[in-house]
Design a protein that fits this description.
mainly beta; seven-stranded mixed beta sheet; four-stranded antiparallel beta sheet; 11 strands
């Protein structure tokens, strides 16, 4: 069983920054890939960024150059540094991983960007 707990969301003005954290109950070096997703009411959940065990990263085109995903193995934590936030980044952000063929999701953290 894997538990993921996000934190770091909040209200920020356009152009501001936030850092999201995802604390995992398992040893994150065991997870081949971890990712951040976001969802706006009425829309499908979309991938924001992911990172492999080897450190390779991938980003949605809408956040490339503004967001940075990272993992701290010593703290069993994944991060999403978000800079240059815009109102279009407003969403609930979720962290995700897979283990033993099962997808695990956190409960989500709200990010609201005011114009």
């Amino acid at each position: 069983q894997v538990q993921l707990v996000e934190s770091g969301g909040g209200l920020v003005q356009a152009g501001g920054s936030l850092r999201l954290s995802c604390q995992a109950s398992g040893i994150i070096s065991s997870f081949e890939i971890m990712g951040w997703y976001r969802q706006v009411p009425g829309k499908q959940r979309e991938m924001v960024a992911d990172i492999t065990r080897g450190g390779s990263t991938d980003y949605a085109s809408s956040v490339k150059g503004r967001f940075t995903i990272s993992r701290d193995y010593a703290k069993n934590t994944m991060y999403l540094q978000m800079n240059g936030l815009t109102p279009e980044d407003t969403a609930v952000y979720y962290c995700q991983t897979a283990w033993g063929g099962i997808d695990y999701w956190g409960q989500g953290t709200q990010v609201t960007v005011s114009s």
